[in-house]
Amino acid sequence: MKALLLKDKGLWKDMKVEEMEKPAPGDGELLVEVHAVGLNPVDYKTGTNGMPSWTYPHILGLDVAGVVAEVGNSVTGWEKGDRIVYHGDFTKKGGYAEFALITAHTASKLPDSISFEDAAALPTAGYTAYQALHRKLALDQVNTILIHGGAGGVGGFGVQLAKRAGKTVISTASSHNHEYVKSLGADYVIDYREENVKEKVMELTEGRGVDAVIDAVSRQSATDALDMLAYMGHIVYIAGAPDFAAVKPFTKVVSYHEIALAAAHQSHDIQAQKDFAVIGDDMLSLLAEGKLDAMLKEVIGLEGVPEALSRLSERHVKGKIVAKLK
User: What does DSSP say about strands 144-147 and 168-172: parallel, antiparallel, or unpaired?
Assistant: First the structure.
């Protein structure tokens, strides 16, 4: 098969499409003929540092949509030819290839009405946002949510899901993306480059602060967000934990929530792994019903992945980029 090969850690900008042996499904696995793969920051981050479990050449790419090519032993509920989408395990070889492996119980069946490209835009960013809102937050106690980076993947899906849940959504974005983020459902968008985000949030909430923050930017951003929380507020962090010492005990009584999709793959918790399929099924239903935007903004070839990941690493890409293989 053809695959985009990472020859060693740190060399993701130099990846080239070359021939490699096609894998075979093991017990409980599916071999998937890849039609489309979503690009994510985790690709260049893990591609920079590598993983102890990797052997080189390695294949990146976590968000795969395609067709089941072979069914491994003990697999039920899947047949050759089924359309499929999944979030992969970054400790194993990924989806920037003509064929890839996934554990059968973590994947979702892809309706005929949804394109492979739109489906591949969902998993990493979409499932992260879904976990943040529907697995971590007590939404009946949350009315206002600040979601950083509303023009990006996690932020954009978060804005849509939060608005669907009936919440008042405040987001941050560069000024040229404000209308786009509002089109996703944000009630207010703050220009983080030109405005004081904390002052604006406190103004919009009449000095109270927001009930929850979803931060996929950085540890510092998550720490800064603690000042914008109301009493009994929640912070969901994806790109690093905030400084827990920044909030003194017996003051705001903050609840902290970590999101790490990859940890479910490494766990021995089958229920947690099966929840990927549950989340995927729900998001695909929303997409099929026109209630969710996949935010697909660019479709490229496999050879264009390194350049696109380089742009993604500069943190100014709007929406989602997907590589199309078929």
Answer: parallel
- Give the model confidence (pLDDT) of 220-249 as tens digits: 999 999 999 999 999 999 999 999 999 999
Confidence band (pLDDT; 50, 70, 90) for 114?
very high
pTM above 0.85?
yes
Of 127, 51, 132, 153, nearest to 94 (Cα)? 51
d(CA 140, CA 260): 23
Burial-class residue 85 by CB neighbours within 10 Å (0-12, 13-18, 19+). buried
Q: Are 92 and 64 in contact (CB under 8 A)?
A: no
Q: List pLDDT tens digits, range 148-161.
A: 999 999 999 999 99
Q: What angle do CA 221, 226, 229 make, to 5 degrees?
A: 125
CA distance 192 to 176: 12
**C-beta separation of 130 from 157 below 8 A:** yes
For residues 10 and 259, what is the distance between their CA atoms, to the nearest angstrom? Answer: 25
Percent of the chain with pLDDT over 70: 100
